[in-house]
Design a protein that fits this description.
With 301 residues, the chain is of the alpha/beta class. It has a domain of 209 residues: Ribonuclease Z/Hydroxyacylglutathione hydrolase-like (Metallo-beta-lactamase, Chain A, 4-Layer Sandwich). It is 43% helix and 19% strand. The strands form 2 sheets. Strands 1-2-3-4-5-6 form a 6-stranded mixed β-sheet. It has a 5-stranded mixed β-sheet with strand order 7-8-9-10-11, with no helix packed on it. α7 packs antiparallel against α8. It is globular.
């Protein structure tokens, strides 16, 4: 009898050792959206507050926007732990030097994103500084910790995972998730309430990236976009519809890929407004329509 009890105990112990153990879900951090005004093209940054400190995702465009972001970090009263970047457009990295001044913390990005930032920064400054004047940050701080697709960065007790997308809205996009939590910081893969920046001319790849994004996130995920309000999967659907209508209208207005005149661009804006009324940042459509016309014409050839 005693032997049977011992054997049963040993068997129970062995079985327990092979039972899968549930991975504890991390404590949900406080996520704060820091939205720039219209003058800063509504660019978002996000504060992720943990028990140990604050992580910043993206860093806004102008000096005043970056100073406001820095002030919000200080108001939390916890150490800044690092800055994560989603992609290489200036409205998402320009403010890094201001935000991190006096803090010995990394600026972290995918290698592909870093290459775009370093490769395009001088040209972007030449293009946009005349418009923004003293509001254009100088100096700008580039990423100093580079990561690859799927790599995890542990900050403040959370595991931030980078997902490298490739060309989409920009020449190299990525987004960040937090392991164990249904959140995704998607940069400019989706826009919310504004027209989209289309000047880099990768709308075909962008649509493919949106399909992958939709299947890779949990159904209940909250998406934190680079412009506009956070939302769910409906933001991905809306971006798909927007790009589909945009491409169809540009094919109609410029079947050969020739530049669109001002009347054609106004017609394009009006068509997109019918699809989704109330979008802001109309100037982005005219700015990038010719690039998409060239993209579509090249695909047709």
């Amino acid at each position: 009898m005693q032997t049977s009890i011992v054997l049963a105990s040993l068997l129970a112990t062995a079985l327990a050792c092979h039972e899968p153990r549930s991975v504890p879900r991390p404590a949900a951090p406080r996520i704060e959206q820091i939205a720039s005004p219209a003058e800063g093209i509504f660019a978002n940054a996000y504060l992720i507050e943990t028990a140990d400190g604050v992580v910043v995702i993206d860093a806004t465009l102008r000096v005043s926007d970056a100073n406001a972001l820095r002030a919000r970090v200080a108001a939390v009263g916890k150490p800044l732990l690092g800055v994560l970047l989603t992609h290489g457009h200036p409205d998402h990295y320009n403010g890094t030097a201001i935000v991190t001044a006096g803090h010995d913390v990394p600026v972290i990005a995918a290698r592909e994103v870093d290459r775009v930032i370093r490769g395009d920064d001088a040209a972007k400054e030449k293009q946009w500084k005349p418009m923004f004047g003293d509001q254009w940050p100088a100096p700008r701080r580039f990423p100093d910790r580079l990561v690859g697709d799927g790599e995890v960065v542990r900050l403040g007790g959370l595991d931030f995972r980078v997902h490298v997308v490739g060309p989409a809205e920009s020449h190299a996009d990525s987004y960040w998730t937090i392991d164990g939590l249904p959140v995704a910081f998607v940069g400019d893969l989706v826009f919310s309430g504004t027209h989209s920046f289309i000047t880099d001319g990768h709308t075909t790849a962008w649509l493919t990236a949106l399909d992958r994004l939709a299947t890779s996130l949990p159904a209940n995920a909250t998406l934190y976009p680079g412009h506009g309000k956070p939302g769910g999967a409906e933001l991905i659907d809306a971006e798909r519809r927007y790009l589909g209508r945009l491409r169809a209208e540009i094919r109609r207005l410029s079947p050969t890929g020739a530049p669109l005149d001002s009347a054609a661009k106004a017609e394009l804006v009006a068509a997109l407004a019918q699809l989704e009324p109330g979008l802001t940042l109309d100037f982005l459509v005219g700015l990038g329509a010719d690039a998409v016309a060239r993209e579509l014409a090249a695909e047709s050839r």
